[in-house]
Structures are given as structure tokens and as C-alpha cells.
Amino acid sequence: MGTPRIAYLPGDGIGPEVLASARTVLESAGLEAEWTEAPVGWSSWIDEGDALPAETLRVLQSTDCCLFGAITSKPATDAEAELSPHLKGTGLRYTSPILRIRQAMGLALNVRPATFWSGVASPLSAPPAASADGRPFALTVFRENTEDLYVGCEAHPVTDGAAVATAFPTYGRFTGQAPDDIAASLRVVTRQATERLLESAFSFAEANGHPTVTLAEKPNVLRATGGLVLEVARDVAARHPSVRLVEQNVDSLCTELVRRPGDFPVIAATNLFGDILSDLAAGLSGGLGLAPSGSYGDTYALFEPVHGSAPDIAGRGIADPLAAVLSGAMMARHLGRDDIADVVERAVAGLLTDGRVLPRDLGGSATTAAVTAALVKRLQTLTV
After folding, report:
1. Does pTM top 0.90 for this prediction?
2. Which residues are catalytic?
3. Which of 63, 128, 357, 362 suits a disulfide with 7, CB 3.0-4.6 Å?
């Protein structure tokens, strides 16, 4: 690959601050790239009535991958109220730009590692230990990224309850209620996307010497969708005999995860369950300030911190940039620059172990700029 072309989408709130830090760290580690910045998020919604402008989608389609900051999303009533005056009352509907990007770019797989870094406090009395070579334990959640309850097939009010009851007889008990008192969402799961999810999880487990992949589902209640996921998981597991499939109801897994996360190095889940479980794993390993993610398709990938836009601290210079920095390391690895990814992760590990320059969410008082400068200084010693 030549010079990579990277879409740079800072977004809302603290997004611009943490993304600037990540870019500084990546460039200090030696990443050379062609960066193209584009607007996305709440300000685009207010000004244009579209949180994902057409120009931004064109930037995504003309680049190799994307580094994404954070976005602000608000309820429908707030979205309408905050539109520019000339756009109000025109029938515009806010939809999450990150969900639209995932669907438009075919980013069907989301990978979220939760790393138990040395020097970072955990609510666990005995967090998972590092490996014999000193590498910290990482619990990695593989999450389907474009389906499930996130497809946007929703209705409120439900105006044709009789037709719904004809298709789904168990809905009949709701037909006596006023349409405006009912909202409904459709869960969609496909064999193709589920197979890709499970193949990715099993291949990762094989490559990294993990003995199990845990499937987090609820097929005892969600018999159609959960049943299909379970069927596909068993088919995929049969092709990977060196890795054992562990089938676990998602609620039961939450109970076990907070007691012994080290038993679950690889978890595979559909969209909603994976979203929840990865946040839980992040909480066990130090918080969302250390939680990176990558979303992958056949020809494109997007990398972003798991945390939100945190508007309450935006512009104050105190946001934790480490999740964005680690997302940048994932991007570097995707671009074939394992050397850059490794050195950035080593710099983060050294910063956390040393403990003198930590952001506020990790118990320190360092500003975003101070954390960035400390990482750059460490990189200078690691790359000479």
C-alpha cells in the first residue's frame, strides 16, 4: 500500500480534541498519511438538516479508512427544536450518522478490545493477570454492526395493530391500546452477517491461541432470531475444531463476566448485546476512556473511541484521549503498520504503568494536551 488516505471526522463535543491527540501521536510514531477532514454530527444536523452530509459520504468513499471522533445524538423532539429556523417543520428526521456510515460502507463487524492495563484500577478485587511475557489480558468483543434492533425498523405510533396481530398472534393483547401508546422495533438477523461475525471471532481466537469463543445470545426467548444465530455459530464452530464454542445466555454471561472476565477472552454477539457487553467489559478494565474500537467491511474500516461526545467537558481541555489514541493504533495495524501500532500501545502502557501523567477519569489531573505530550515524549525514546 502507498500513502494511506484517511477520512478524518472529528464530530461533536470532545471528538475534535481527542482526535487531534490521536493524530499527533500517530504522526509522532511515524505514520504518514493523506488526511481529509469532513463534517459530521450535530452541527451538520442543525445547519443542514443532515448529520451525515453528502460531501462527507463522498470523502468516506474516496479514502482507505476513517478515524472518527464522537457524535451527539438527542431525542426527536430536541432534534426538531434545534434545527435552524429555515429547516424547522420541513419533515426532516434525525438519524444517527455513525449508524448510517456503518450501513452505507458495509461495516458489518465491530471489534472492541477491553485491555486490563497494568497501573489502571479495576473494580475487580483480582483482575485478569498479564501473560508470561508481560502482555496485559484483553477481552475482545466481536459485535455484528449493521443488523439486530439497530436497523431502524421502528414505528410510533403503531397505527395498524390488527395487521400486526394477524402476522404475530401474540401481539393481539396490545390491540386494545391507543396507537400512540405503543411503539415497536423490529429485530433483523441474517445468516450472512452472523456467519461473518462468528468466522471473524473464531479466526481471531485461533490466531491468538484462545481456547474458546463465547456466544452471547438469548435463544430461549428470542427463538427465531436467537435460534438462527445459534445455528450459524454451531456451523462455524464445526469448522474450527481447535476452538470450543461456549453458548451462554447474555444475562447469565453478564453475571459471570463481572466475577471472572479472564474466562472469556473472545465474545461474539449481535448488535445490541455486543454494544452492552463491550461497555461492561470496558468498565471492568478501566472505563470508556481506555476503550477503542474498529468497524470492518470488505473494503473499508472505521476506527473510533467507544465513549460519547461528553458535551459537559467539551472545550475544557480535560478529555481523556487514550481511547482515541488506541483506536488510532488499531487503524495503523489495519493499514499494515504493526510497527506503529505496537510502539503506540507500548507508549500507552508505559504512561499508565508510570502513573504520573494520567487524565482525570483515571485518577490523575493531566489535561488532554499533557497526556498527548507525555505520549509523544515516550515515543521519542521508543523509536530512536
Report:
1. yes
2. 150, 218, 251, 275, 279
3. 63
